[in-house]
Design goal:
The protein has 6 helices and no strands. By secondary structure, it is an all-alpha fold. It has a single domain, classed as Formiminotetrahydrofolate cyclodeaminase monomer, up-and-down helical bundle (Four Helix Bundle (Hemerythrin (Met), subunit A)).
């Protein structure tokens, strides 16, 4: 859906009265942008004589980043599809059947941004590795990527929470929140370390 359209059309739709794409899709897009920057830095590192010693390691980073970019790109669409199921549930007549459909839709909708949060954390860890091995001429791009990665994690977490608020399965909610808390706590630490390292290398 969105992947076949222009960036302008996506942004125009995002700004419109249409409920999709929304914050969840935007969080996934932000993660995809972060992954793209990791790949760019890696591509400018692999094959350079100066970085021969870390070439294999950076090539692995590139491979992982590309897989993350592909998945996060798909999630920009999947988030919109998941939200449409919630909209459909709202249109049903009030009653037990509507409640069941709504609970299922909310659980499904929470899983998309939850995956975005997990993948964004993986991007943070890739940047932590890349900041020491990547082409120094693109060190600021590592900085942008790590900031984007944390932002994608934090915004995805918000979109998980908005869905969890309506879910009655307490065990499901508690499990998701426990994982999110851990990802956010560790993610902020990683981002802080990488950003400081980037600033140091830019001096």
């Amino acid at each position: 859906m969105w992947l076949e359209k222009s960036l302008k059309s996506y942004l125009d739709k995002l700004a419109s009265k249409s409920p999709t794409p929304g914050g969840g899709s935007a969080a996934a897009l932000l993660g995809a942008l972060a992954a793209g920057l990791v790949s760019m830095v890696a591509n400018f590192t692999v094959g350079k004589p100066k970085y021969k010693k870390v070439e294999k390691s950076v090539a692995r980073i590139l491979e992982r980043a590309e897989k993350l970019r592909e998945r996060l790109s798909r999630l920009t669409e999947e988030d919109s599809i998941a939200y449409s199921k919630i909209s459909d549930a709202y249109r049903l007549p009030k009653g037990e059947e509507r409640n069941k459909v709504m609970q299922k839709a909310l659980c499904h909708a929470s899983k998309v941004p939850f995956e975005v949060a997990n993948l964004s954390f993986k991007l943070l860890k890739l940047n932590q590795d890349l900041v020491e091995k990547g082409n120094r001429n693109l060190i600021s791009d590592v900085g942008v990527s790590v900031i984007f990665s944390l932002a994608a994690l934090e915004t995805a977490a918000l979109n998980v929470e908005i869905n969890l608020a309506g879910i009655k399965d307490k065990e499901f909610v508690a499990k998701k929140r426990k994982t999110l808390t851990s990802l956010l706590k560790e993610g902020k630490k990683v981002e802080g370390k990488v950003e400081k390292r980037v600033e140091k290398l830019m001096e």
